[in-house]
Known about the structure:
Chain A is mainly alpha-helical. Helices cover 64% and strands 5% of the residues of chain A. In chain B, the strands form three sheets. In chain B, strands 1, 2, 3, 4, 8, 9, 10, 11 and 13 form a nine-stranded mixed beta sheet that branches.
Amino acid sequence: MSKPEDLEKGSKLPQPTAWKSNEMLKRVKGRYRSEGRFKAMGFAAICAAIIALVLLVGSIFLTGIAGFSQTYVKLDIYFDPAVLEEIQTSSGEDLENAFISANYAKLTQDSLRKLFPEVKSRREVFRLFQFVSPGSRTQLQNIVREDPGVIGKTQSLWILAADDVDMFVKGKISRNVAQSDRKVSDLQIGWIDSLSADGRLVKRFNWRFFSSGDSREPELAGIWGATVGSFYTLLVTLIVAFPIGVLAAIYLEEFAPQNKITDIIEVNINNLAAVPSIVFGLLGLAIFLNVFQFPRSAPVVGGLTLALMTLPTIIIAARAAIKAVPPSIRDAATGLGASPNQVVFHHVLPLSMPGIMTGTIIGMAQALGETAPLLMIGMVAFVVDIPQGIFDASTALPVQIFLWADSPERAFVEKTSAAIIVLLAFLVTMNGLAIWLRQKFERRW
Amino acid sequence: MLKKSILTVVGAGALAMSFTAGAEARDQIRIVGSSTVFPFATAVAEEFGRSTKFKTPIVESTGSGGGLKLFCAGVGETHPDITNASRRIKKSEVKRCADNGINDIVEVKVGYDGIALANSKETKQFSLTTRQVWLALAKEIPVGGSMIENPYKTWNEIDPSLPATKIEVLGPPPTSGTRDAFAELAMEGGCKTFPEIKAMKKKDKKAYKKICHTVREDGAYIEAGENDNLIVNKLQANPNALGIFGYSFLDQNSDVLQGSQVNGVLPTFENISSGKYPVSRSLFFYVKKAHVGKIPGIQEYLGEFVSEKAMGDFGYLAEKGLIPMPKAEMQKFRADAKNLTPLQM
C-alpha cells in the first residue's frame, strides 16, 4: 500500500504506482466519469443549438413556403369597346392617358357578374368585386397596350385573386368558425367553392414575388425592389469600405511606426467594431443628410453609413491576413532588391488576398442584414418603384421584412417568412463564397 | 487590383460631387409621419401611382411627432411635402413651422381609428368601463382620500363582475401614438370619473396628467413593442391576457380575437364611425401648400385620398380598416383639400 502520507514522511522510497489498486481504479473510473459528463454536456449544448436552429428555420420555411405560390382565378374577360372607347379614338399624349385611366376594373367586374348573376344587393356586389386583386387592372392594361386589337374580343385569362381568397384557398382562414368571426363570409366561400369546382381556381408559383416592388396588397408585393436597393447599397459599401479598409490595414501592418499613436488607433478600431449599428445610423443622419444634403432614403447614404460600420471588420480581417504572411517572404523579396512598396504589392498583398476577401465578404454579409442604421436615414419607407440608381429612394431586404412584419393583413405573414428565406439564401451564399475562397486559395506556411 | 480600387474611389467621389453640384428637381412626392396612418397613406400612394402618370410617392413611417419635426424643418426639395399624424398638429408645431417659413398648411382629416382592447376567443369576452381600465392599469389609485400604489392583482378585485384572472395587459410602449391616444382616451376617461381627481385638473394640470396617464410598472402592463402583429400572436398564446392595438388589426384577426366592450360599446366599424365607442381618435395629414405646383402630383394625390373610392364608406381604405367620417365632415375636408384651405388654429 502506498499512501500519500508515507511519501510525505519520506521514510520509504517512492513505490511505483499501483495501477491495479482499488484506490487507483476508483480514481481512474472517476476521471472517465467526469470526462463522460463533460462530453455529454457538450453534446447537449450542440443539440440545444441545433434544435433552436431547426425550430427557427423550420418555422420560417413552413410559413414561408406558402408565400411562393399565389391563387389565380380564370375569368372570361370581354374587352368591352364601350369601356375602352378612348383608347381606340385617341392618339399621342392622349392615348397614353387613355391607357392609364381606362376603367379596367369594369372589365373584371362585368365578367364576375356574368359568372354570378344572382348577386344583386349593393353590399354583395361590392364583396364580389373584391374577389380579384387590384393588380388585375395593370394586367389588363398591359394586354391592351400590347395589342389594342384585343378590344371587342373575349379572352379567357388567369387573373390574380385577392389576398383573402388566397388565404382561404391556402387554408389559412378556417371555414369552421362563425361567419361573423372571419374575414371571408359564407357568400364568398360559396363563390370560391363553385369556382374551384369549375377548375377556375389554381395555385401557381408566384413569379411576381421576385419581379415587383413593395405593395400594400400582399398578393402584389414583391422583393425585387428591396433586392435591388440592397444591391446598390452594398455596392456603395464595397466601393468605399474595401479600398479604405485594405489601405488602412497595409499601412498599419507594414509601414506605420510602432508608437503610442498607432496603439491608440488600433484600440479604437477594435472598439469601433463593437459599436452598436444604430450609432452609425445617427452618424449617417448627421453627416450625410444634414451636412452633405444627400437625398433621404437613397442607397448612396445607406451604403456610406454601412461602409462606416463595415470598415473595422475589414481592417481587422485584413490585418490578420497580412500578419499571417511569414516574414521570410518579405526578407526574401527585400534581399533580392525589392523596394518596400514592391514587397507589399507584389508579394504580401497577393498572398493575403484570400484572407482579406473572406473578411470583406463576411463584413458585407453583416451589412446586408442590417436594419437599424437604415432606419435613421429614411430607408424604412414604402417604395413601390424599383430603384434605378444609387440616388433613387429605395429600401433594403431586412427593412422590407420589418415593414411586412408590421402590416395588418394576414397574407403578409407568409410573405415575411418568404422574404426571410430569400435573405437567408443570400447570406448562406455569401458565407459559402467566403469559405470556398478560403479553402481554395489559402496557403499554409 | 489596387489601381482599379483607387479609380473606383475617385469615381464614386466624383459622382457624389456631381450630385451635390446639380441636384435634380424632385419629381416624386415624399410623405413622412405616423405609423398608424402609414397603412392608409401607402394604399393611397400605390393606387395613385397605378392610376396616374405620376411616380408613386415615397412614404416613410417616422411617427407623428417625428414626421411633424421633419415637415416643419423648412420649404424646399429636401423637405417632405406631406406628413401624416394620428393626432392634431399642436400649436407649438405650427409655430415651429412658421419660424421656418412654412405658413400655409392644409389639414385633411383622413377618418377615425379605434383602439381596441381585445383577448383570445378561447376565453370570455371582457366588458369594461374606462374607470375599470384605469384602475387596472394606473400606477397609483386613490383609496380613502390618498394615493396608493396600485394593489390590484386580479380583475375581480376591481369589480366582482370581472373574471378572477390575473391582470395582464399587452400594449404599445410610450413612444407609440397608439399609447398616447390610449392614455388620453381610455385612461384619462376612467380617471376623470373620480371627482377628487377631476377637481385637480383646474388646479394642477401637470399633476392631474401624471396621475391619469402614468401606467403601472409592476408587470401587469407589458410593453409589447410597436409591432401590433406581435401582440396578436402573444394573445393567441396567452388566452388570459388582454391586448391594446389599432382596430385594423382586430378587423384582420376577427377569427381569433374578440374586442372588449368599453362602457358597454363594442369596437365595431359602426360604433367607431358614429363616435359611440369611447376609445377612438382622428387621423390627419398635413400638406405644405408652398410645395403644391413645385412637386408634381400633390394636388392629384390629395384628390385621390379624399375621393369616394378611397375615403368613402365602401372605399379601399375602409377595407384596410379605416373608419370613414360622417358625410358632412367628409364634405368639409374634401372642399378643404380641393381649395387648399390653410389651417387656422
